[in-house]
Amino acid sequence: MARKKVTMQQIADVAGVSKYVVSKTLNGKPGVSDQTREKILFIAKQLGYHSDLLRSNKTEDVNASHSSFIIVVIEHQSHHDSLYWGKIIDGIYEAVNEVKLGMMIVSEDQQVKQLVNTANLQGIIGVGHVSSEVLVELHQLAVPIVLINHEDSLVPADSIYADNMDGLYKMTNHLIAIGHRSISFVGDTSFSKSFYERWLGYRMAIEENGLQDEIIKQPLSIPYSSEFQLSFQRWVMERDEIPTAFLCANDDIAQRVIMSLRKVGYNVPVDCSVTGFDNIDSSALIKPSLSTVQVLKESIGQRAVYKLIWRREHRQFPPEKLLIKAEIVMRDSVVPMN
Q1: Residue 91 and residue 13 share a domain
Q2: Key word Hydrolase present in the record (predicted)?
Q3: CATH label of the domain that carries residue 257
Q4: What is the pLDDT of residue 197?
Q5: Same domain assignment for residues 140 and 191
Q6: Which of 57-71, 111-125, 126-140 is the least confident region?
Q7: Same structural domain for residues 137 and 176?
Q8: Is 248 part of a structural domain of the chain?
Q9: Which among 222, 282, 303, 326 is placed 20 to 30 Å from 144, CA to CA?
Q10: 173 and 284 share one domain
C-alpha cells in the first residue's frame, strides 16, 4: 500500500471541523480557539502532514512522551461524517490521557509497521469501515483490536456500536404516539450497516403498530451523494401527497430533506415533520431545529479504549459486541398531528 499525501480535508474530517478552519490553523492565522488549534495540530502531526508550523510546534509526539501507546486507524471519511467521527476521536483522546497511554492516529493507507516501533504497542482501535486487507495486516501484530461501527469476519475483534435499531425504534414510536401514521424512512440501507440497523428499528415499530401504508413498506433509498437533494425533490414532486413525517438515517440527510422540501414549497414542520440521527452540532442550529437521536459519541470512543485495556488481560474470551444506548431529542422539526 503506497502512502498517499495527507490533505487538509482529511485533517478536517478527523477533527470534525471545516477545511477553512484547518487552513487557518496550519497557516498560523488568528480566529481559531486554543483548544481547536491544539486538536488540529495534534491530528495533523499524527496523520503525517508536514508544514513549518508543525515542525516548530511544541506538541510532543505521543511515542516520545509515553512508553506505551495505542494506534487509531481511520478510514478516509467524507465531510458528512466528519462531525460524528471527530467526537469519537475526542473520546478516545480523553480516555488514553486518563489511563496514561499515548495515541497515534494513522489513515488506513499508511503502513503501520513502517511508521512506528510496535514493541510498546498496546492495541489498535479501528474507526469506521477499515478494509479487510488493512485489518488482516494489523491482526498480524498480535495485539488486541477494537472496531468502532464495524465488524470483519476475517479478523476476531471486539466491536462497539451505537444502538442504531433501538434509537430509531424509539423515535418511530414517539411519532406514532403523537398521531403520525404515514411515516417514511429516508436513507440508502446499503450505504452502511448503521443505516440498515436504523431501518430495522423503524420497521419493527411500524409493524408492531400495524401500520401498512404502501409508502412505508420500503425505505426511500436515494443514493447518499451530491445528487441527493435533486433526486429527493423529484420524488416529492411526483406525488400528490407526501408522508406526514420523514425519519432520516442521519442528521445530514435530514437537513438536506428540509432544504429540499422548502425548495418545492413545503414547510417543515407545518406540512410534515422531519427527524435525523446522530445529534451533530448543526442540528440544534438550523431552522427549524432538528429533532434527532442522540448518540453519545465521546462515550463510544472512551469505551473503545477501556475495552482494549480489558481485552489485553482477557484474551481467552470470545470477541464481544457492545451497544451504546441512544436517546431521542425533540426539537422544532416535529409537531403532533391534529
Answers
A1: yes
A2: no
A3: 3.40.50.2300
A4: 94
A5: no
A6: 57-71
A7: no
A8: yes
A9: 326
A10: yes
Question: Domain residues for 152?
Answer: 8-156
CA separation for the pair 92, 110 (Å, rounded)? 20
Cβ atoms within 10 Å, residue 112: 18
- Taking the mean position of all CA atoms in its chain, how far away is CA 63? 27
Q: What is the pLDDT of residues 158-179, one digit of tens each?
A: 999 999 999 999 999 999 999 9
Q: What is the 3-state secondary structure (H, E, C) of the chain?
A: CCCCCCCHHHHHHHHCCCHHHHHHHHCCCCCCCHHHHHHHHHHHHHHCCCCHHHHHCCCCCHHHHCCCEEEEEECCCCHHHHHHHHHHHHHHHHHHHHCCCEEEEEECCCCHHHHCCHHHEEEEEEECCCCHHHHHHHHCCCCCEEEECCCCCCCCCEEEEECHHHHHHHHHHHHHHCCCCCEEEECCCCCCHHHHHHHHHHHHHHHHCCCCCHHHCCCECCCCCCCHHHHHHHHHHCCCCCCCEEEECCHHHHHHHHHHHHHCCCCCCCCCEEECCECCHHHHCCCCCCEEEECCHHHHHHHHHHHHHHHHHCCCCCCCEEEECCEEECCCCCCCCC
Specify the pTM: 0.75
pLDDT value, residue 199: 96
**N residues, the chain:** 338
pLDDT number for residue 78? 44
Question: Given 156, 172, 201, which residue is the final one in a domain?
Answer: 156
Confidence at residue 80, expressed as pLDDT on a 0 to 100 scale = 41
The span from the CA of 152 to the CA of 51, in Å, is: 36
Residue 191: predicted pLDDT: 86
Mean pLDDT of 300-327: 96
**Cell numbers for 176:** 406514532
Q: Which of 127, 156, 185 is the last residue of a domain?
A: 156
